[in-house]
Specification:
Layout: H1 24-28, E1 34-36, E2 42-44, H2 54-58, E3 65-66, E4 73-74, H3 80-84, H4 90-94, H5 105-121, E5 127-130, E6 144-147, H6 163-199
Antiparallel strand pairs: 1-2, 3-4, 5-6
């Protein structure tokens, strides 16, 4: 990983929900149980969830789990209950080193960029912001400063929303269907022309 060659260096990772801008779990949910909150987070309504598990396989980060007792899905809620009453998420409130920040996303991105620049000045040239803006996820509402290969932190280098592959399949199927229909129409017209020629 990015910390190779250093002594007494640790790499910490977080398995919290990333609250993707384009959330695979939300797209895959057939019941409408998963919604986008007014704060930008992705929230699973347990009373609506039917336990189908589609969201588990649709999450590119593998953070959605199922309750062993009733099969319903659950994950980090972004402390939706706390945000509704004006409080910050508990993890940010409790973090003793203030490594976990909470606030307006653009402000946090600027702060993260400043932090990365500081790390570069201190000789940690492999430090970067993990926020997959250039993938079908289109960025997350929980991003991280990492060093080196993001897989060291159990983060996929290029996460994709699974439905992006379905859209490609649908496009290919539509093209194939169009070609088949076109070929059938040409054959039908050609056959009709031959019949007309014999009729004369």
């Amino acid at each position: 990983g990015g910390n190779a060659g250093e002594h007494n260096s640790w790499s910490f990772s977080s398995d919290v929900c990333k609250h993707c801008e384009q959330a695979g779990c939300l797209e895959a949910c057939p019941t409408g149980s998963i919604v986008r909150t007014e704060f930008g987070g992705v929230f699973i309504q347990p009373d609506v969830c039917n336990g189908c598990g589609y969201c588990v396989t649709a999450c590119p980060f593998g953070v959605v789990e199922r309750n062993e007792k009733d099969g319903r899905a659950f994950k980090c809620t972004f402390c939706y209950d706390r945000q509704k009453v004006g409080l910050q998420p508990a993890c940010a409130k409790a973090c003793p080193t203030e490594s976990i920040k909470f606030g307006e996303i653009e402000d946090l991105r600027r702060e993260a960029q400043s932090r990365v620049e500081e790390l570069h000045r201190r000789g940690m040239g492999d430090a970067t912001i993990y926020d997959p803006l250039d993938t079908s996820v289109e960025g997350t509402h929980a991003f991280f400063i990492v060093r080196g290969d993001p897989r060291t932190y159990n983060l996929p280098p290029a996460p994709e929303v699974p439905t992006v592959y379905l859209k490609k399949s649908w496009r290919s199927s539509a093209i194939a269907a169009g070609l088949l229909l076109g070929g059938t129409l040409v054959a039908f017209l050609s056959d009709g022309a031959r019949h007309d020629g014999r009729a004369r």
